[in-house]
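Page 37, continued from 36.
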């Protein structure tokens, strides 16, 4: 999901809800696992990270679009100081079975954990270097991890980009020539699809945001464009299409980049960051939009023509009081949502109705 709450895009952000949906959302029993994160791994495959009790992670996998879940092994790395499991900060799957988890706080230097068997087992994958992993991206055969050194002022620099085959615990630093001196407040945006890699740099520290692109799996980057904004974040829709959100302060704007032209197409969509407006790409042409603001508040809108036109398909889940819902779309019709960060619901009809999912 592309949203405004984080410059370093890893797992997306939550749209706020403005209208009552057809869902009847109830509370979670005290003994039930509490869902905290949803990761898309394909049109039918999703993973849900949950906690059974404070600090103890559990991981569940669905291969039928979220109808049924089975428990697999959670990525667990314990603190050397306390012995307690570190929080999972990023969970990203680049295929249905190959995933990467980043654990610990945002400033911690910890190894990654990777799975190549749909979460049955996890292995450590050390990158080296002294920075913190701020983003993971990839689709299909390759995964990428961005490691940055962030100072006390929040400005991050010293870009180190690592690459691995999907599911591999062996990560190699790539040259990333053309990135020397780039920096960003709070992070640098990362998106990737196969050998295509994009970075958004200058977030929060430059008068404009630079978009850098690589066609050789991160070996070299060149400037693709400049965006007038405070911060921007990317998400790949395909090997040839990149979607971007940009914030000018309160207002969000959205762009689509086609590799064939390297031209940015501004979408006729806006919303505020405080309203948790989001854009969720499913491909290079198919994308979903939602917002908690204005006349479109509470709705789910679908475009099948590269963002030129949108049609309302349903409503976001949750009451009109503005209860937050973080939505993960598997297809245009199937989606999972975390409501108020503790209840998991599902739609199979584009958001017309929502029903409770029990893990």
């Amino acid at each position: 999901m592309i949203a405004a709450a984080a410059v370093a895009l890893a797992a997306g952000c939550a749209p706020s809800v403005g209208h009552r949906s057809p869902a009847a959302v109830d509370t979670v029993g005290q003994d039930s696992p509490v869902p905290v994160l949803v990761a898309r791994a394909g049109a039918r495959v999703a993973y849900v990270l949950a906690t059974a009790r404070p600090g103890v992670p559990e991981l569940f996998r669905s291969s039928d679009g979220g109808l049924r879940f089975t428990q697999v092994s959670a990525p667990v790395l314990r603190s050397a100081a306390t012995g307690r499991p570190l929080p999972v900060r990023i969970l990203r799957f680049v295929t249905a079975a190959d995933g990467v988890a980043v654990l610990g706080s945002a400033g911690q230097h910890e190894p990654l954990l990777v799975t190549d068997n749909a979460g049955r087992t996890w292995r450590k994958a050390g990158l080296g270097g002294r920075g913190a992993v701020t983003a993971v991206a990839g689709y299909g055969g390759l995964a990428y991890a961005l490691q940055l050194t962030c100072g006390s002022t929040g400005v991050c620099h010293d870009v180190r980009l690592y690459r691995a085959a999907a599911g591999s615990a062996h990560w190699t630093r790539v040259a990333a020539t053309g990135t020397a001196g780039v920096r960003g407040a709070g992070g640098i945006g990362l998106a990737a699809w196969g050998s295509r890699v994009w970075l958004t740099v200058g977030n929060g520290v430059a008068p404009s945001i630079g978009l850098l692109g690589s066609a050789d799996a991160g070996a070299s980057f060149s400037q693709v464009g400049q965006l007038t904004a405070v911060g921007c974040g990317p998400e790949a829709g395909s090997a040839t299409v990149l979607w971007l959100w940009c914030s000018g302060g309160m207002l969000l704007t959205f762009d689509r980049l086609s590799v064939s032209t390297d031209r940015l197409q501004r979408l006729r969509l806006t919303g505020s960051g405080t309203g948790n407006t989001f854009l969720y790409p499913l491909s290079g042409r198919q994308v979903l939009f939602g917002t908690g603001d204005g006349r479109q508040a509470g709705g789910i809108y679908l475009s099948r023509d590269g963002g030129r036109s949108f049609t309302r398909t349903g409503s976001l889940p949750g009451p009109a009081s503005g209860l937050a819902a973080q939505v993960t779309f598997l297809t245009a019709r199937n989606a999972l949502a975390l409501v108020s960060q503790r209840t998991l619901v599902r739609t199979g009809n584009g958001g017309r109705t929502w029903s409770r999912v029990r893990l």
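The radius of gyration is 19 Å. Flag for discussion at group meeting. The first strand starts at residue 2 and ends at 3.
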